[in-house]
Amino acid sequence: MNARITPEGSLEVLSRYEVSLLKDKSKKGLYDIFRQCALAVLNCGNESDDCKAIMERYKEFDIKLVNQPRGIKLELTNAPASAFVDGEMIKGIKEHLFSALRDIVHAKSVLAKSAELNLDSSSGITNVIFHQLRNAQFFTAGALPNIVVCWGGHSISRQEYDFTKKVGHELGLRGLNICTGCGPGAMKGPMKGATIAHAKQRIHNGRYIGISEPGIIAAESPNPIVNELTILPDIEKRLEAFVRIGHGIIVFPGGVGTAEEILYLLGVLLHPANKKLPFPVFFVGSKENASYFKMIDTFIGGALGEEAQKRYKIIIDDPIRVAKEIKKGIDEVAHYRRVHRDAYYFNWLLKIDPLFQQPFQPTHENMANLQLHRDQPVHLLAANLRRAFSGIVAGNVKDEGVRRVEKFGPFEIHGDKTILDPLEGLLESFIKENRMKLPGKVYTPSYRIIN
Protein backbone atom coordinates (compact mmCIF):
# COMPACT_ATOMS: atom_id res chain seq x y z
CA MET A 1 0.00 0.00 0.00
CA ASN A 2 1.01 3.60 -0.67
CA ALA A 3 -0.46 6.32 1.55
CA ARG A 4 -0.08 9.74 3.11
CA ILE A 5 -1.10 9.96 6.75
CA THR A 6 -1.46 12.72 9.33
CA PRO A 7 -0.54 12.38 13.03
CA GLU A 8 -2.69 10.39 15.41
CA GLY A 9 -1.67 10.71 19.05
CA SER A 10 0.83 12.91 20.82
CA LEU A 11 3.03 14.31 18.03
CA GLU A 12 1.90 16.93 15.53
CA VAL A 13 4.83 19.29 14.90
CA LEU A 14 8.58 18.92 14.43
CA SER A 15 11.42 21.42 14.29
CA ARG A 16 13.48 21.83 11.14
CA TYR A 17 16.40 20.16 12.93
CA GLU A 18 14.26 17.13 13.78
CA VAL A 19 13.02 16.90 10.20
CA SER A 20 16.60 16.94 8.93
CA LEU A 21 17.52 14.12 11.34
CA LEU A 22 14.65 11.97 10.11
CA LYS A 23 15.67 12.49 6.48
CA ASP A 24 19.37 11.80 7.17
CA LYS A 25 20.31 8.29 5.97
CA SER A 26 23.82 8.42 7.42
CA LYS A 27 24.76 6.83 10.77
CA LYS A 28 24.25 10.22 12.44
CA GLY A 29 20.70 10.46 11.19
CA LEU A 30 17.44 8.79 12.23
CA TYR A 31 16.10 7.54 8.91
CA ASP A 32 17.23 3.91 9.23
CA ILE A 33 16.07 3.40 12.80
CA PHE A 34 12.72 5.08 12.14
CA ARG A 35 12.15 3.04 8.99
CA GLN A 36 12.86 -0.17 10.93
CA CYS A 37 10.52 0.73 13.81
CA ALA A 38 7.82 1.97 11.42
CA LEU A 39 7.90 -1.29 9.46
CA ALA A 40 7.61 -3.26 12.71
CA VAL A 41 4.55 -1.27 13.76
CA LEU A 42 2.90 -1.62 10.34
CA ASN A 43 3.59 -5.37 10.33
CA CYS A 44 1.24 -5.88 13.31
CA GLY A 45 -0.57 -9.22 13.15
CA ASN A 46 1.83 -10.86 10.70
CA GLU A 47 3.53 -13.20 13.15
CA SER A 48 7.23 -13.58 12.49
CA ASP A 49 10.15 -13.23 14.90
CA ASP A 50 12.86 -13.04 12.22
CA CYS A 51 13.91 -9.39 11.92
CA LYS A 52 16.23 -10.13 9.02
CA ALA A 53 13.49 -11.91 7.05
CA ILE A 54 11.01 -9.07 7.70
CA MET A 55 13.47 -6.44 6.51
CA GLU A 56 14.26 -8.42 3.36
CA ARG A 57 10.59 -9.14 2.62
CA TYR A 58 9.76 -5.44 2.72
CA LYS A 59 13.03 -4.13 1.31
CA GLU A 60 11.04 -1.86 -1.06
CA PHE A 61 9.24 -0.23 1.88
CA ASP A 62 10.00 3.46 2.28
CA ILE A 63 8.81 6.21 4.59
CA LYS A 64 9.30 9.92 4.03
CA LEU A 65 8.49 12.95 6.11
CA VAL A 66 6.43 15.66 4.45
CA ASN A 67 6.80 18.92 6.36
CA GLN A 68 3.90 21.37 5.97
CA PRO A 69 3.17 24.84 7.36
CA ARG A 70 0.36 23.40 9.51
CA GLY A 71 2.10 20.25 10.69
CA ILE A 72 3.60 17.05 9.28
CA LYS A 73 2.56 14.07 7.19
CA LEU A 74 4.19 10.73 6.54
CA GLU A 75 4.38 9.34 3.02
CA LEU A 76 4.48 5.54 2.91
CA THR A 77 5.51 3.44 -0.09
CA ASN A 78 5.00 -0.33 -0.30
CA ALA A 79 3.74 -0.61 3.28
CA PRO A 80 2.22 -3.90 4.57
CA ALA A 81 -1.39 -4.03 3.35
CA SER A 82 -2.53 -5.58 6.65
CA ALA A 83 -2.15 -2.16 8.31
CA PHE A 84 -5.07 -0.81 6.23
CA VAL A 85 -8.81 -1.37 6.01
CA ASP A 86 -10.52 -0.21 2.82
CA GLY A 87 -7.55 2.01 2.05
CA GLU A 88 -7.47 3.66 5.50
CA MET A 89 -4.79 2.90 8.06
CA ILE A 90 -6.09 1.26 11.25
CA LYS A 91 -6.29 3.95 13.94
CA GLY A 92 -4.34 2.03 16.59
CA ILE A 93 -1.50 1.33 14.15
CA LYS A 94 -1.41 4.99 13.20
CA GLU A 95 -1.09 5.93 16.89
CA HIS A 96 1.76 3.44 17.30
CA LEU A 97 3.53 4.82 14.24
CA PHE A 98 3.55 8.36 15.57
CA SER A 99 4.51 7.14 19.06
CA ALA A 100 7.60 5.58 17.47
CA LEU A 101 8.37 8.82 15.67
CA ARG A 102 7.90 10.82 18.89
CA ASP A 103 10.22 8.62 20.96
CA ILE A 104 12.99 8.31 18.38
CA VAL A 105 13.08 12.06 17.81
CA HIS A 106 12.95 12.86 21.52
CA ALA A 107 15.77 10.48 22.43
CA LYS A 108 18.07 11.89 19.75
CA SER A 109 17.36 15.60 19.59
CA VAL A 110 16.69 16.36 23.25
CA LEU A 111 18.06 13.76 25.63
CA ALA A 112 21.34 12.95 23.86
CA LYS A 113 22.27 16.63 23.76
CA SER A 114 21.42 17.56 27.32
CA ALA A 115 24.44 18.16 29.58
CA GLU A 116 22.20 17.63 32.62
CA LEU A 117 21.35 14.05 31.64
CA ASN A 118 24.78 12.42 31.78
CA LEU A 119 24.64 8.98 30.18
CA ASP A 120 27.92 8.03 31.89
CA SER A 121 26.31 8.12 35.33
CA SER A 122 23.70 5.84 36.88
CA SER A 123 21.46 8.73 37.91
CA GLY A 124 21.82 10.28 34.46
CA ILE A 125 20.57 7.12 32.74
CA THR A 126 17.60 6.92 35.13
CA ASN A 127 16.79 10.56 34.38
CA VAL A 128 16.89 9.83 30.65
CA ILE A 129 14.32 7.07 31.15
CA PHE A 130 12.15 9.36 33.29
CA HIS A 131 12.19 12.12 30.66
CA GLN A 132 11.40 9.66 27.89
CA LEU A 133 8.41 8.24 29.77
CA ARG A 134 7.19 11.68 30.79
CA ASN A 135 7.38 12.88 27.19
CA ALA A 136 5.25 9.85 26.24
CA GLN A 137 2.69 11.03 28.85
CA PHE A 138 2.99 7.85 30.91
CA PHE A 139 2.73 9.58 34.30
CA THR A 140 -0.47 10.47 36.11
CA ALA A 141 0.20 12.44 39.28
CA GLY A 142 -1.94 11.31 42.20
CA ALA A 143 -3.04 7.99 40.67
CA LEU A 144 -2.68 5.06 43.09
CA PRO A 145 -0.29 2.22 42.16
CA ASN A 146 -2.08 -0.22 39.83
CA ILE A 147 0.34 -1.23 37.06
CA VAL A 148 1.19 -4.92 36.73
CA VAL A 149 4.09 -5.75 34.43
CA CYS A 150 3.58 -9.08 32.65
CA TRP A 151 6.59 -10.85 31.15
CA GLY A 152 6.63 -14.06 29.13
CA GLY A 153 7.44 -15.58 25.78
CA HIS A 154 6.19 -14.66 22.32
CA SER A 155 6.53 -18.31 21.27
CA ILE A 156 4.03 -20.11 23.53
CA SER A 157 1.33 -22.75 23.06
CA ARG A 158 -2.36 -21.93 22.67
CA GLN A 159 -3.04 -23.40 26.11
CA GLU A 160 -0.39 -21.14 27.68
CA TYR A 161 -1.81 -18.14 25.83
CA ASP A 162 -5.33 -18.84 27.10
CA PHE A 163 -4.00 -19.05 30.65
CA THR A 164 -2.38 -15.61 30.36
CA LYS A 165 -5.78 -14.24 29.29
CA LYS A 166 -7.41 -15.74 32.40
CA VAL A 167 -4.84 -14.07 34.65
CA GLY A 168 -5.25 -10.76 32.81
CA HIS A 169 -9.03 -11.06 33.26
CA GLU A 170 -8.70 -11.46 37.04
CA LEU A 171 -6.29 -8.52 37.20
CA GLY A 172 -8.69 -6.34 35.20
CA LEU A 173 -11.64 -7.23 37.43
CA ARG A 174 -9.65 -5.76 40.32
CA GLY A 175 -9.00 -2.51 38.50
CA LEU A 176 -5.36 -3.25 37.69
CA ASN A 177 -3.70 -2.07 34.48
CA ILE A 178 -1.33 -4.10 32.30
CA CYS A 179 2.18 -3.33 31.04
CA THR A 180 4.05 -5.75 28.77
CA GLY A 181 6.75 -5.86 26.12
CA CYS A 182 3.87 -5.11 23.70
CA GLY A 183 4.34 -8.12 21.39
CA PRO A 184 2.34 -11.34 20.81
CA GLY A 185 1.98 -14.42 23.04
CA ALA A 186 2.29 -13.81 26.79
CA MET A 187 2.50 -10.08 26.11
CA LYS A 188 -0.84 -9.93 24.33
CA GLY A 189 -2.84 -12.44 26.40
CA PRO A 190 -2.98 -10.49 29.71
CA MET A 191 -4.03 -7.34 27.86
CA LYS A 192 -6.79 -9.18 26.03
CA GLY A 193 -8.13 -10.65 29.27
CA ALA A 194 -7.97 -7.29 31.02
CA THR A 195 -9.92 -5.48 28.27
CA ILE A 196 -12.91 -7.79 28.82
CA ALA A 197 -12.69 -7.40 32.60
CA HIS A 198 -12.42 -3.61 32.34
CA ALA A 199 -15.51 -3.58 30.12
CA LYS A 200 -17.39 -5.64 32.73
CA GLN A 201 -16.37 -3.18 35.46
CA ARG A 202 -17.18 -0.21 33.20
CA ILE A 203 -13.58 0.97 33.40
CA HIS A 204 -13.23 3.20 30.34
CA ASN A 205 -9.65 4.38 30.88
CA GLY A 206 -7.91 1.01 31.09
CA ARG A 207 -4.18 1.19 30.35
CA TYR A 208 -2.46 -1.38 28.13
CA ILE A 209 1.11 -0.17 28.15
CA GLY A 210 3.72 -1.50 25.72
CA ILE A 211 7.45 -0.89 26.16
CA SER A 212 9.83 -1.85 23.35
CA GLU A 213 13.22 -0.96 21.87
CA PRO A 214 14.48 -0.72 18.26
CA GLY A 215 16.43 -3.98 18.31
CA ILE A 216 13.48 -6.20 19.29
CA ILE A 217 10.41 -4.40 17.95
CA ALA A 218 10.52 -6.03 14.50
CA ALA A 219 10.52 -9.49 16.10
CA GLU A 220 7.76 -8.47 18.53
CA SER A 221 5.52 -6.06 16.63
CA PRO A 222 3.19 -4.11 18.98
CA ASN A 223 -0.07 -5.99 19.39
CA PRO A 224 -3.26 -4.02 18.54
CA ILE A 225 -4.51 -3.83 22.15
CA VAL A 226 -1.64 -1.59 23.26
CA ASN A 227 -3.01 1.94 23.76
CA GLU A 228 0.16 3.47 25.21
CA LEU A 229 3.38 2.62 23.37
CA THR A 230 6.90 3.83 24.02
CA ILE A 231 10.21 2.84 22.47
CA LEU A 232 13.30 3.17 24.67
CA PRO A 233 16.75 3.49 23.04
CA ASP A 234 18.05 0.03 24.06
CA ILE A 235 17.21 -3.15 25.99
CA GLU A 236 18.82 -1.95 29.23
CA LYS A 237 16.72 1.22 29.35
CA ARG A 238 13.65 -0.79 28.38
CA LEU A 239 14.17 -3.17 31.31
CA GLU A 240 14.74 -0.30 33.72
CA ALA A 241 11.55 1.38 32.50
CA PHE A 242 9.59 -1.76 33.42
CA VAL A 243 10.84 -1.85 37.01
CA ARG A 244 10.56 1.91 37.50
CA ILE A 245 6.89 2.24 36.47
CA GLY A 246 5.63 -1.23 37.43
CA HIS A 247 4.19 -1.84 40.91
CA GLY A 248 4.41 -5.64 40.66
CA ILE A 249 5.60 -8.22 38.13
CA ILE A 250 4.09 -11.47 36.86
CA VAL A 251 6.28 -13.83 34.84
CA PHE A 252 4.65 -16.35 32.51
CA PRO A 253 6.56 -19.15 30.72
CA GLY A 254 8.94 -18.03 28.01
CA GLY A 255 12.35 -18.57 26.48
CA VAL A 256 15.70 -16.80 26.64
CA GLY A 257 14.13 -13.33 26.51
CA THR A 258 12.04 -14.14 29.59
CA ALA A 259 15.10 -15.63 31.32
CA GLU A 260 16.94 -12.38 30.58
CA GLU A 261 14.14 -10.40 32.20
CA ILE A 262 14.09 -12.68 35.27
CA LEU A 263 17.85 -12.36 35.78
CA TYR A 264 17.67 -8.59 35.36
CA LEU A 265 14.89 -8.30 37.93
CA LEU A 266 16.49 -10.63 40.48
CA GLY A 267 19.88 -8.99 40.03
CA VAL A 268 18.36 -5.57 40.76
CA LEU A 269 16.40 -6.82 43.77
CA LEU A 270 19.49 -8.62 45.17
CA HIS A 271 21.40 -5.35 45.43
CA PRO A 272 21.95 -4.77 49.19
CA ALA A 273 20.27 -1.33 48.97
CA ASN A 274 17.00 -2.97 47.82
CA LYS A 275 16.81 -5.61 50.57
CA LYS A 276 13.82 -4.05 52.37
CA LEU A 277 12.13 -2.62 49.29
CA PRO A 278 8.72 -4.27 48.67
CA PHE A 279 8.35 -5.52 45.09
CA PRO A 280 5.83 -8.31 44.48
CA VAL A 281 7.06 -10.88 41.94
CA PHE A 282 5.15 -14.01 40.91
CA PHE A 283 6.06 -16.82 38.52
CA VAL A 284 2.72 -18.00 37.16
CA GLY A 285 1.52 -20.82 34.94
CA SER A 286 -1.05 -23.55 34.43
CA LYS A 287 -0.61 -27.04 35.87
CA GLU A 288 1.07 -28.02 32.58
CA ASN A 289 3.78 -25.45 33.36
CA ALA A 290 4.67 -26.78 36.82
CA SER A 291 7.80 -28.55 35.52
CA TYR A 292 8.87 -25.40 33.62
CA PHE A 293 8.93 -23.27 36.75
CA LYS A 294 10.57 -26.04 38.75
CA MET A 295 13.33 -25.96 36.13
CA ILE A 296 13.61 -22.16 36.36
CA ASP A 297 13.62 -22.27 40.16
CA THR A 298 16.34 -24.94 40.17
CA PHE A 299 18.47 -22.89 37.79
CA ILE A 300 18.10 -19.73 39.91
CA GLY A 301 18.91 -21.64 43.11
CA GLY A 302 22.01 -23.17 41.54
CA ALA A 303 23.25 -19.96 39.92
CA LEU A 304 22.23 -17.25 42.41
CA GLY A 305 21.32 -19.07 45.64
CA GLU A 306 18.45 -19.17 48.13
CA GLU A 307 18.35 -15.41 48.63
CA ALA A 308 17.33 -14.98 44.99
CA GLN A 309 14.61 -17.64 45.36
CA LYS A 310 13.11 -15.67 48.26
CA ARG A 311 12.37 -12.68 45.99
CA TYR A 312 9.55 -14.42 44.10
CA LYS A 313 6.63 -16.78 44.66
CA ILE A 314 5.50 -19.53 42.27
CA ILE A 315 1.72 -19.96 41.82
CA ILE A 316 0.41 -22.76 39.61
CA ASP A 317 -3.05 -22.97 38.02
CA ASP A 318 -4.79 -20.36 40.18
CA PRO A 319 -5.45 -17.03 38.36
CA ILE A 320 -7.70 -15.72 41.16
CA ARG A 321 -5.00 -16.25 43.79
CA VAL A 322 -2.44 -14.58 41.53
CA ALA A 323 -4.62 -11.46 41.20
CA LYS A 324 -5.44 -11.31 44.91
CA GLU A 325 -1.83 -11.71 46.00
CA ILE A 326 -0.38 -9.19 43.59
CA LYS A 327 -3.11 -6.72 44.57
CA LYS A 328 -2.10 -7.19 48.20
CA GLY A 329 1.57 -6.73 47.28
CA ILE A 330 0.80 -3.53 45.38
CA ASP A 331 -1.05 -2.18 48.44
CA GLU A 332 2.17 -2.76 50.43
CA VAL A 333 4.12 -0.91 47.73
CA ALA A 334 1.71 2.05 48.01
CA HIS A 335 2.13 2.15 51.82
CA TYR A 336 5.94 1.97 51.56
CA ARG A 337 6.09 4.81 49.06
CA ARG A 338 3.80 7.00 51.17
CA VAL A 339 5.99 6.45 54.23
CA HIS A 340 9.22 7.10 52.30
CA ARG A 341 7.76 9.95 50.24
CA ASP A 342 8.48 8.30 46.89
CA ALA A 343 6.38 8.88 43.77
CA TYR A 344 3.65 6.39 42.90
CA TYR A 345 4.33 6.76 39.16
CA PHE A 346 8.13 6.22 39.15
CA ASN A 347 10.21 4.12 41.54
CA TRP A 348 13.06 6.50 42.38
CA LEU A 349 14.11 4.51 45.49
CA LEU A 350 15.08 1.39 43.54
CA LYS A 351 18.89 1.09 43.36
CA ILE A 352 20.24 -0.22 40.05
CA ASP A 353 23.93 -1.04 39.61
CA PRO A 354 25.55 0.60 36.55
CA LEU A 355 26.39 -2.86 35.15
CA PHE A 356 22.65 -3.32 34.53
CA GLN A 357 22.35 0.07 32.84
CA GLN A 358 25.28 0.24 30.42
CA PRO A 359 24.32 -1.03 26.94
CA PHE A 360 25.80 -4.44 26.14
CA GLN A 361 26.84 -5.03 22.54
CA PRO A 362 26.52 -8.77 21.79
CA THR A 363 29.67 -9.22 19.73
CA HIS A 364 31.59 -12.49 19.71
CA GLU A 365 34.38 -10.89 21.74
CA ASN A 366 32.03 -9.46 24.39
CA MET A 367 30.11 -12.73 24.73
CA ALA A 368 33.34 -14.72 25.15
CA ASN A 369 34.59 -12.30 27.83
CA LEU A 370 31.51 -12.38 30.08
CA GLN A 371 32.44 -12.86 33.76
CA LEU A 372 30.45 -16.00 34.52
CA HIS A 373 32.23 -16.99 37.73
CA ARG A 374 31.32 -17.06 41.41
CA ASP A 375 34.11 -14.75 42.63
CA GLN A 376 31.84 -11.66 42.58
CA PRO A 377 28.74 -10.31 44.38
CA VAL A 378 25.65 -12.31 43.45
CA HIS A 379 23.82 -9.33 41.93
CA LEU A 380 26.75 -8.77 39.53
CA LEU A 381 26.77 -12.44 38.55
CA ALA A 382 23.08 -12.01 37.72
CA ALA A 383 23.99 -8.99 35.57
CA ASN A 384 26.52 -11.00 33.57
CA LEU A 385 24.14 -13.94 33.16
CA ARG A 386 21.54 -11.46 31.93
CA ARG A 387 24.02 -10.30 29.30
CA ALA A 388 24.60 -13.89 28.18
CA PHE A 389 20.87 -14.36 27.60
CA SER A 390 20.66 -10.95 25.91
CA GLY A 391 23.33 -12.04 23.43
CA ILE A 392 21.47 -15.27 22.67
CA VAL A 393 18.26 -13.27 22.08
CA ALA A 394 20.19 -11.05 19.65
CA GLY A 395 21.54 -14.09 17.81
CA ASN A 396 18.06 -15.61 17.63
CA VAL A 397 15.88 -12.73 16.42
CA LYS A 398 17.63 -9.34 16.17
CA ASP A 399 18.75 -8.34 12.68
CA GLU A 400 22.31 -7.34 13.60
CA GLY A 401 22.80 -10.35 15.89
CA VAL A 402 21.47 -12.83 13.31
CA ARG A 403 23.85 -11.44 10.69
CA ARG A 404 26.82 -11.68 13.10
CA VAL A 405 26.09 -15.35 13.84
CA GLU A 406 25.64 -16.11 10.13
CA LYS A 407 28.99 -14.50 9.36
CA PHE A 408 31.19 -15.58 12.29
CA GLY A 409 29.38 -18.61 13.72
CA PRO A 410 27.71 -19.09 17.13
CA PHE A 411 28.61 -16.95 20.13
CA GLU A 412 30.96 -18.76 22.53
CA ILE A 413 30.13 -18.62 26.25
CA HIS A 414 32.87 -19.36 28.82
CA GLY A 415 32.74 -19.59 32.61
CA ASP A 416 32.68 -21.77 35.72
CA LYS A 417 31.40 -25.29 35.20
CA THR A 418 29.01 -24.88 38.15
CA ILE A 419 27.33 -22.02 36.28
CA LEU A 420 27.60 -23.28 32.71
CA ASP A 421 26.17 -26.75 33.35
CA PRO A 422 22.78 -25.51 34.64
CA LEU A 423 22.81 -22.75 31.98
CA GLU A 424 23.28 -25.32 29.21
CA GLY A 425 20.56 -27.53 30.67
CA LEU A 426 18.11 -24.63 30.77
CA LEU A 427 18.85 -23.64 27.18
CA GLU A 428 18.44 -27.22 25.94
CA SER A 429 15.05 -27.37 27.67
CA PHE A 430 13.99 -24.18 25.88
CA ILE A 431 14.95 -25.76 22.55
CA LYS A 432 13.05 -29.00 23.26
CA GLU A 433 9.92 -27.05 24.26
CA ASN A 434 10.10 -24.82 21.11
CA ARG A 435 10.61 -21.65 23.15
CA MET A 436 13.42 -20.24 21.01
CA LYS A 437 11.45 -19.48 17.84
CA LEU A 438 7.82 -19.36 16.73
CA PRO A 439 6.26 -22.80 16.08
CA GLY A 440 7.03 -24.39 12.75
CA LYS A 441 10.56 -23.00 12.46
CA VAL A 442 13.72 -25.05 12.89
CA TYR A 443 16.02 -23.53 15.51
CA THR A 444 19.76 -23.44 14.93
CA PRO A 445 21.55 -22.45 18.18
CA SER A 446 23.16 -19.01 18.10
CA TYR A 447 25.49 -19.97 20.95
CA ARG A 448 28.05 -22.59 21.98
CA ILE A 449 28.82 -23.42 25.62
CA ILE A 450 32.60 -23.83 26.11
CA ASN A 451 32.91 -25.90 29.28
Automatic annotation (TrEMBL):
KW Isomerase (keyword) present: no
InterPro entries in the cross-refs: LOG_fam (IPR031100), LOG_family_nucleotidases (IPR052341), PpnN (IPR049788), PpnN-like_sf (IPR037153), PpnN_C (IPR021826), PpnN_N (IPR027820)
UniProt catalytic activity: AMP + H2O = D-ribose 5-phosphate + adenine
Top-level lineage group: Bacteria
Molecular function GO terms recorded: AMP nucleosidase activity; pyrimidine-5'-nucleotide nucleosidase activity
Keyword ATP-binding: no
Enzyme class: hydrolase
Domain (Pyrimidine/purine nucleotide 5'-monophosphate nucleosidase C-terminal) ranges: 330-450
Domain Pyrimidine/purine nucleotide 5'-monophosphate nucleosidase N-terminal: start-end pairs: 4-108
Keywords: Glycosidase, Hydrolase
Pfam families reported for this sequence: DUF4478, Lysine_decarbox, PpnN_C
EC number(s) on file: 3.2.2.4
Name the UniProt record assigns to this protein: AMP nucleosidase
Gene source species: Alkalimarinus alittae
